TrEMBL record:
Transmembrane segments: none annotated. The lineage of its organism: Archaea, Methanobacteriati, Methanobacteriota, Stenosarchaea group, Halobacteria. GO terms for biological process: D-gluconate metabolic process; pentose-phosphate shunt, oxidative branch. One of its GO terms (molecular function) is oxidoreductase activity, acting on the CH-OH group of donors, NAD or NADP as acceptor. Residues 172-305 form the 6-phosphogluconate dehydrogenase C-terminal domain. Substrate binds at residues 102, 125-127, 179-180, 184, 275. NAD(+) binds at residues 7-12, 74-76, 102. SUPFAM superfamilies: 6-phosphogluconate dehydrogenase C-terminal domain-like, NAD(P)-binding Rossmann-fold domains. It comes from Halobaculum marinum. It catalyses: 6-phospho-D-gluconate + NAD(+) = D-ribulose 5-phosphate + CO2 + NADH. The keyword Protein biosynthesis does not apply. The active site is at residues 176, 183. This is 6-phosphogluconate dehydrogenase, NAD(+)-dependent, decarboxylating. Keywords: Gluconate utilization, NAD, Oxidoreductase. The keyword Oxidoreductase applies.
Length: 305
């Protein structure tokens, strides 16, 4: 099969490498000429624009091939719409476009309705470690397009068991959104546990704790292996890692959806709130401190104390 890949950053380059390794052909494009050159170095045919990528795929298609297949791995949001705008004049109903990024599921439904091509929204999990292991892929969209792309999904995923069609348009990104909510809550739980061990009664080697837990404990997991790696590489007190957590869009969408569905997700919400809390001084906490003075004449800690 021949696949076009647009967006050749941390994740897109892995898609290119794994699809090439499986014996398929790749035409690659990124806004960054450097990223496109790296894909060419790996064996892909470089394109110098989205239109050029489409033309190369069309020209390279074997006789009898119906349509072209394109994988987008650009940042969620405007970059996906901009790329689709560039593709739109060329796309036909025989073509298949996969969005492998972390797009909001309602955007994916809108895009699927707007395009002439078959549109697959594909939640991708595994991060850069997927280079060796392959990813977990959660796909939404038309069944024929999912089946058509199965050789590509087999290559990009851990194997045939590493991908599945979740359902209609939007369902792949919906499942990935909830996956990320769960990821937030798990990270929060590990964070709280290790914080208590760090601050608690015993002088513990946290890397050793994580390693021991990773060997047979009920709570072993890849995130816990990453805890072990973090203590090994940063030190028992996490060195100069700042008390500030970035990101948050997928967790916010999960909480918004849970409110809309009236499903309680207190753990996911709490993990998200902790991230927001890490980024700012809290006015509410300052007011609580001043109120303690109001009702009890308790001392108010002042900013430069
Ligand atoms: N990094 C991770 O662990 C994971 C990332 N994702 C998702 O995968 C997508 C890509 O993520 P990364 O590879 O980490 O990002 P990245 O920032 O490493 O790479 C994005 C690439 O897209 C290119 N790009 C941006 N706009 C473009 C456009 N209009 N046309 C062509 N190329 C364009 C950039 O030049 C860059 O090379 C995002 O939606 C992200 O949320 C999903 C799962 C895990
Ligand atoms: O999808 C992912 C992992 O599964 C990405 O790493 C994503 O960026 C994580 O979300 P956030 O940036 O909000 O922490």
């Amino acid at each position: 099969m021949q696949l076009g890949v647009i967006g050749l950053g941390r994740m897109g380059q892995i898609v290119v490498d794994r699809v090439l390794d499986a014996g398929h052909d790749v035409v690659a494009f990124d806004l960054s000429a450097e990223a496109t050159a790296a894909a060419a170095e790996a064996g892909a045919e470089p394109a110098d624009s989205v239109a050029d990528l489409y033309e190369r795929l069309d020209a390279g298609a074997d006789e009898g091939d119906d349509g072209v297949r394109i994988w987008l791995m650009v940042p969620a949001g405007d970059a996906v719409d901009a790329t689709l705008d560039d593709l739109e004049p060329h796309l036909t109903s025989d073509d298949v476009v996969v969005d492998g990024g972390n797009s909001y599921f309602e955007d994916s439904v809108r895009r699927a309705e707007a395009t002439d091509a078959a549109y697959l929204d594909c939640g991708t999990s595994g991060g850069p470690a997927g280079a060796d292991l392959g990813f977990s892929l959660m796909v939404g969209g038309p069944e024929w397009a999912y089946e058509e792309l199965t050789p590509v999904f087999d290559a990009v995923a851990t194997g045939p068991a590493g991908h599945d069609r979740m359902g209609e348009a939007g369902s792949g990104h919906y499942v990935k959104m909830v996956h990320n909510g769960v990821e937030y809550a798990l990270m929060q739980a590990y964070g709280e546990g290790f914080e208590l061990l760090h601050e608690g009664r015993y002088d513990l080697d946290l890397e050793a704790v994580a390693r021991t837990w990773n060997n047979g404990a009920v709570i072993r997991s890849w995130l816990l292996e990453l805890c072990e790696e973090a203590f090994r590489e940063e030190g028992n007190d996490l060195g100069d890692v700042a008390d500030r957590v970035e990101g948050g869009s997928t967790g916010t969408w999960t909480v918004q959806e849970a409110l809309e569905q009236e499903v309680p997700v207190p753990l996911i919400y709490q993990a998200l709130a902790e991230r927001f809390d890490s980024r700012r001084e809290r006015f509410g906490r300052r007011l609580a401190s001043r109120l303690r003075y109001g009702f009890g004449r308790h001392e108010v800690p002042r900013k430069d104390e």
